Amino acid sequence: MSKAETFAFGDPEPVLSSHITDNLGIWLLDNGRYYSTPTPWTGLARLLRANAYHGPILDFKTQLVMRGFKGSKVLKRRAMLAATTDYNVFANSYFQLVRNHFKEVIEVRHLPAINMRRAKEPDTYCILNTIGEIVNFKAGEVVHIKNYDVSQSVYGMPGYLGAIQSMLLNEDATLFRRKYYLNGAHTGYIFYSSSASLGEKEQNEIRKSLKSTKGPGNFKNTFLHIPNGREKDIQIIPVGDFSTKDELEKIKNISRDDIIAAHRMPPALAAIIPQNMTGFGDITKVDAVYKENEIEPIRETLLEINDHLLNTGKISFEAVQVSA
What we know:
This protein is elongated. It folds into two domains: about 20-185 and about 240-315, no CATH class; about 190-240. The protein has a three-stranded antiparallel β-sheet. A three-stranded antiparallel β-sheet has the order 6-7-8, with no helix packed on it. The chain is about 30% helix and about 15% strand. By secondary structure, it is of the alpha+beta class.
């Protein structure tokens, strides 16, 4: 008596396996030397390349903040650009104040937020270097600029965390479509046979033939002949044929909208192609409103560094006129 047989090409594989969406809280690490970050900064850095919107939006926001930047002899544009990038990505920026023998600030250096940690003692910080060593700074040597987080007061937390699932979904949809085309069995189907003429040898040959359609040899045709076969002895039953639906476009659009909403980025500035004839309106007005409501508050926060500098070393952001 013959028995039913099932065959699959393999189990689903997760694209990403991280817990960056979890707010893990903070606690002292390394025998109480420094505080852990509330969420892994390395995970937030990886997110910058997860889809076509999140990273570019943050980069664009950084460029808008830096538009009209006027540096000083102690704080150069390169250092401020790096600090602004850190603030937009991690909601934390760090500056090192280099002083002379008279305790005057002669240089302000950027410290990478991804490696900076608040030490146990107040107003003290350390950095985790690339070889795992901890370098401590003196009290008052580091200026930490951060936003406010209601759950803790040690580190800032970026406001876009609520859209992380949409960011990963956008990436998952793209990777699925890529695998869909790279895999010869991309449509997903059940190869069903009810023919008594298919012996074990023939079944193995069919299985081998189907396996060979994967990878570089995808989209191969398979010839199957069953002597004295009946109608519907062989059936191909689709399982969620992705190519015949608009699921990819829906997922990409919905997750995209979530991402730009989390960044409070107007669609006109997010490089989105308008789907109607009217477009997104006057882009100069959109730019002015966005600058007033989003960019200026970031600048005001970053300008806290001036509280630690003399008049000759303070920075500013000059107004830049944008014409149509």
